[in-house]
Design a protein that fits this description.
The protein contains nine helices and eight strands. β1, α1 and β2 form a beta-alpha-beta unit. Strands 1-2-3-4-5-6-7-8 form an eight-stranded parallel barrel, surrounded by six helices. About 45% of the residues are buried. The protein starts with 5 loop residues before the first strand and ends with a helix. It is an alpha/beta fold. The chain has a single domain, classed as Aldolase class I (TIM Barrel), CATH 3.20.20.70.
């Protein structure tokens, strides 16, 4: 990944970002001015390859499993994601938790295949456990603030500082993102001031009336 603040946009499976709307949204994001940031999107699995093929955006998966190619019905192998052009993956989001044993295996599988890992943590105790796995990024997101209008940078700034400190101590090569309620340039600016290297954003961009304009307004 480039040495720029990362803005990771998680499309989830919002109706505004599903089916044919996913590529339309991706193209609007691709047309936005980046203003010195690295913009990455995580569309739904069913639209991922189309977006990789039709845009110049860096695309991450919303999830990857701890399996190799083979007899694994319904699973998502890291190797296949790489083969269709995906560059990284979100793991352990609060909406898709992974037991620690299997999370460790998934991270190892991603590393073996060259996928960037963004691993989510909802508490400081979880931050400590995930640091032992040395992911590329750790995204701190308190579950109760995800999808809301109050940013974690406003509600829990001291906890972000503690999370950043823990990661620097326990896994120095891991970069920190923060998420949950991030929806304007003030939230983004505060996140960077608190020591993170970027943000993980869910509903704000997909659900905005003008995603391109909204994103450009957020980037300082």
């Amino acid at each position: 990944m480039k040495n720029k603040p990362l803005i990771l946009l998680n499309f989830k499976t919002y109706k505004e970002a599903s089916g044919t709307k996913s590529l339309i949204l991706a193209k609007k994001i691709a047309a936005a001015r980046k203003n010195g940031y690295e913009i990455v999107i995580a569309p739904s699995l069913l639209t991922t390859k189309e977006i990789v093929d039709e845009t110049n955006l860096t695309v991450f998966a919303q999830h990857s499993d701890s399996v190799e190619l083979g007899a694994h019905t319904g699973w998502i192998p890291a190797q296949e994601l790489v083969e269709i052009g995906v560059k990284g993956t979100i793991l352990n989001h609060s909406e898709h938790k992974i037991p620690l044993k299997f999370l460790a295996m998934a991270i190892e599988e991603c590393k073996k295949n060259g996928l960037v890992t963004v691993v989510c943590a909802a508490t400081l105790e979880e931050v400590k456990k995930i640091c032992a796995l040395n992911p590329d990024y750790l995204a701190y997101e308190p579950k109760e603030l995800i999808g809301g209008d109050v940013s974690v940078t406003t509600a829990e700034p001291d906890v972000i500082i503690k999370a950043v400190g823990l990661v620097k101590k326990l896994s120095p090569a891991t970069k920190v993102l923060c998420g949950a309620g991030v929806h304007n340039k003030e939230d983004l600016g505060q996140a960077l001031l608190l020591g993170t290297q970027g943000v993980l954003i869910g509903h704000s961009v997909p659900k905005s009336k003008d995603p391109k304009h909204f994103l450009e307004g957020m980037l300082l």
